[in-house]
Amino acid sequence: MKAAHSDLITTKTPQHLKEIVADILERAQRSGATAAEVSASTSQNLSVAVRMGDIDTLEHGRDQGLCLTVYLGNRTGTAEASGFAPADIAKLVTEAINIAKYTGEDSYAGLADATDMAVEIPDLQLYHPWTIDTADAIELVGECEAIARAEPLIVNSEGAQLSTTQSTYCYGNTHNFNAAYQGTRHSISCSVVAGRNGAMQRDMWFDNRRNAQHLQSIEVIGRLAAQRAIQRLDASKVHSCKVPVLFTPETAISLIGHFTSAISGGALYKGTSFLPDTLNTRVFPEFVQLVEQPRQPGGLYSAPFDDEGVATRDQVIVANGVVKNYILDSYAARRLAMQTTANGGGLRNVTVDGGHQSFEGLVKEMNKGLVVTELIGMGVNQITGDYSRGASGFWVENGKIDHPVEEITIADNLRKMYANIVALGNDTDERHNIRCGSILIGEMAISGI
Question: Which residue stretches of 247-353 are H helix?
């Protein structure tokens, strides 16, 4: 990949943001706040898209923002601003204080405990600027799209895109906590259309990393996008039946996402979870493990502290199929009479362990059934766990992929699906916050023709 001088301006330094945060906290206390917390962020990005060999979009972006929450006893007020000038900051503090004066009291509101604040802020190797200039970025995505379009049966393109972002984030509160870190994120994607006998299918591929040197090559991205589109040609429906279903990593992620949402504090204390009171209860088969590693060096979602300043730490969420930890920020923890799990702002780098088979091995094991490569619609009830979604993918016969399928619906209940996991794949997709391989469900209902 070509590199040259950067077209991007330099982000504000962590020290600069820490000074701004300290000033805001001091102003808030002088204005009567009994406690306060503030986050500040700046980012800059370059985004280039090429379609059919021509520049489609070219954007240079710069963003900055402040979010202040003040507490007047048990009353809370939150205000946001996009400017860092003294007048913007003064207005921000005034608005937050005024809002707090009129809100109702909430005995659960407040900062996370002072004893939970991160003491050491390790370098997690999150900052790797990509000094690519605009001309080279255009050339790179143009080549990626050209590689995809050169594959047989590719008849159109939705384009290739490159994005590179640098950011600085700072959080501080009146526990005398004030810390900041920088991060980068870079991605390349390509989406094309395959056609044959008047029928067309679209598919894509992408990669994103903290360090651009670790991105998949444009050759890999372009060819995978084309191959995935071509493989979907001549798709048909299948007859309604009950068969094993194999979710590829890209779709399996959503199954785990429904689980983590169900054991998150908000859903639990509001009574809107299909998995209430499941702590220390078996939900998955014994071979399933779920771990969070928020301080993984270079991790796409790594952070030294959560959105409340609480020190992040590795934790086991599921061990041997049993739920060992809920996902809690300090507010939810108080509502549930528990302790925060340092998940203010959500989970970070969750990995599903327990998979030992290759994708091909799982296909062979299922013998006959459905491979799901795409899910459509939002037919999931997080209160009951009822699951019904449109899907497309491939039909399997005699342990081998036979033909592509589309316009079908798969249905079951999530709790039953989790208990009925037969095997996990070792084909882990590391491009997302939830990282897992393929998931084989013993049986699901399929509605077709």
Answer: 249-262, 265-270, 330-335
